Amino acid sequence: MSFDSGDPLERMTPAELIGLVRTLIGEVTRVQAEYEKVSGALAKLTIEHQTVKDELARLKNLPPRPPQKPSGMNKATDRPDPQANGCKGGRSTRRRGSNLDKLTVTRTVDVKVDPPAGSRHKGYEEIVVQDVVLSPCVTRYRRERWETPEGETLIAPLDPGIIGGYGPHLHRLVLMLHFQGHVTCEKILALLKGMGVVISKRQVVRLLTAKLETFQAEDAAVLNAGLKSAPYVTVDDTGASHQGKTGVTTQIGSCNFTVFRTGKSKSRQAFLQRLCGGAAYYVINEAALASMRAHDLAQPLIDKLAGHPSRVFHCEADWMSHLSALGLADLKVTPNPVRVASEAALWGAVREQGLLGETIVVSDGAGQFRVGEHAACWIHAERLVYKLIPANDIQRNAVVIARRMIWWFYRALKDYRLAPTPEKAKRLRAQFDRIFNRMRTGYATLDKLLCRLFRLKDDLLRVLDHPEIPLNTNASEGDIRVFVTKRKVSGGTVSDRGRDARDVMIGLAKTCTKLKIPFFDYLGARLGVKGPLVPDLATLLRPAPS
Q1: Which candidate, 280, 253, 250, 298, places its Cα nearest to that of 349?
Q2: Bridge partners of 387?
Q3: What is the mean pLDDT of residues 330-335?
Q4: How confident is the model over 157-163, as a mean pLDDT?
Q5: How far is CA 405 from CA 400, 408, 441, in A?
Q6: Which of 92-96, 393-397, 522-526 is predicted with the least confidence, judged by mean pLDDT?
Q7: Which of 95, 258, 395, 523 could pair covalently with 390 via S-S, beta carbons 3.0-4.6 A apart?
């Protein structure tokens, strides 16, 4: 029906008015749909424009834009307990105790005063003063030399803690300053020279990697013990620079240990190699075959691998030769049979060593971390909704409601971890379905995102079967922040030993912190300095025999 704006509405019949209203409603609906389409395209272009600006800033070596403000879901869903920690009315009433009982007094000094005649002595007023004396101690060792009847020269051995003319105390100080204090080699050199120590930068660098094999062995044992005994591990990764090339550093840790591993790739295959201890170790067993089936490898190829007598391969070259002999390397199909078979064989090696038996891997949802029994981080899941860019008030309101429902459900999960029951778990699964599968907001992008999160139901609700695991990867982000600080201060590494020393020493320092062991005492015990004995860290992670 056509309508001339000059026609008076008073002359139109009711049927014509109804038709006009219907026409206008259809036109408004069409304009609204077009507006939402244009708004979505504008939001997409805004994101692409910002990405281009960030890339230009990177190429021009400009500082990056400030990171997006966190959503605050974790803190906002904490229930305040006014009775906890002696709190009354939201404010702590507990008085701080004295820390003097933690100190060992090494000497006592009586300070005299000349009183006037007739004064009476009223005892002492005590004050404990802590101080640190930093001064070089130069020792000349006179090593006896003997000549044996066979004509060989016998020289008395030095203390094993002495390295290149420098003692264990100085070695410990250099390691503490660099790996825990994030002090650069140049600053350490200036400090030591200011104290009167004759040393060069090259010698400082040598001290950072001295006895690295001993620390590497303990760090590897910590990872092995942690993956065997921990109920869960949280994982994360960050960028790293080595020999001028971009790489990635992976963090693996739990409540009582942390390790770092740096490599060229962040793929699942690289992650599995790091779980194996960094060695390319491939095993065809039931775990490997199950992984191949789960990742849709063709059954004839699985039968070839399962039926071959060779089942264990200790290096990548042997494994690739085996795949070529079976014809897998020549296939151009999807999924890539070489990649799927390699990942499965590495997973078989992980299970062959008894690692990740009942351990849950908690991650931010990145694909390379989806191995074994996996749980997803709720903070990262909610962040996807938080980062949406709504185009109008209706969409903004939909995002607000969706985030409110997610926050409410997250708080319910936190309460469930404190008192888990089968009835609560069943109710929470039903509520999850209502939020992520049945709720429709009318905001197409948000609805697609909620459906995407619903497909992660098993990973997001893993806590219902394992209440001991965390709901987020905040612990990993806290651990890896130390590594990021070190990277910002010292930049990248040049040598492989320097890279390994950085990973190993920062990981051991974090592990000591979680085990309530002073890193200073740990270094002293490993370098032969007299002091508290520190047991092997891996033994502290293994469960006590029943």
Answers
A1: 280
A2: none
A3: 85
A4: 89
A5: 9, 5, 12
A6: 92-96
A7: 395
Q: Residue 435 in contact with residue 449, Cβ under 8 Å?
A: no
Of 7-11, 152-156, 364-368, which gets the smallest average pLDDT? 7-11
Confidence at 1, pLDDT banded by 50, 70, 90: very low
CA–CA gap between residue 90 and residue 74 (Å, rounded): 19
Say yes or no to pLDDT of 494 above 50: yes
Give the burial class of 403: count Cβ atoms within 10 A of its Cβ; 0-12 exposed, 13-18 middle, 19 or more buried.
middle
Mean pLDDT taken over the chain: 88
Helix (H) or strand (E) holding 229: helix 212-229
Sequence-separated (6 or more) residues with CB below 8 Å from residue 257: 222, 223, 225, 226, 230, 511, 514, 515, 537, 541
Beta bridge partners of 259: 252
Is there a contact between 224 and 537 (Cβ–Cβ < 8 Å)?
no
Calpha distance 509→493 (Å, rounded): 19
Q: Per-residue b/e over 107-135, b at no fewer than 16 CB within 10 Å?
A: eeeeeeeeeeeeeeeeeeeeeeeeeeeee
Asked if residues 287 and 267 have their Cβ atoms less than 8 Å apart, the reply is no
Which residue stretches of 251-336 are H helix? 268-275, 286-294, 299-307, 316-326
The residue with greater pLDDT, 55 or 541, is 541
**Tell me, what's the pLDDT at 75?**
83
Burial label for 363, CB within 10 Å (0-12, 13-18, 19+), is buried
Domain boundaries, the chain: 9-58, 213-371+473-493, 382-464
Torsion of CA 353, 359, 362, 366, to 10 degrees: 30
Residue 172 pLDDT level (bands cut at 50, 70, 90): very high
Instruction: Report residue 433: phi and psi, to 5°.
Output: -65, -40
| Nearest of 453, 315, 445, 435 to residue 378 by alpha carbon | 453
Closest CA to 391 of 79, 4, 32: 32
Residue type at 239 in one-letter notation: G
Contact between 4 and 20 under an 8 Å Cβ cutoff? The reply is no
Query: In this structure, what token pair is assigned to residue 453?
Result: 């999160």
What is the rounded CA–CA span in Å between residue 254 and residue 373?
15
Q: Which amino acid is at 45?
A: L
Six token digits for residue 104: 């060992």
Least confident of 274-278, 363-367, 451-455: 274-278
Instruction: Return the CA Rg of the chain.
Output: 32
Cβ burial of 396 (10 Å; 0-12, 13-18, 19+) is middle
Residues 6 or more apart whose Cβ sits within 8 Å of residue 371: 268, 271, 272, 275, 347, 350, 356, 361
Report which residue type is found at 384: L
List the single range of 295-309, 355-369, 431-445 with lowest mean pLDDT.
Answer: 431-445
Q: How far apart are CA 340 and CA 322, in angstroms?
A: 14
pTM of the predicted model as reported, rounded to 2 decimal places: 0.81
User: Residue 510's closest CA among 544, 529, 485?
Assistant: 485
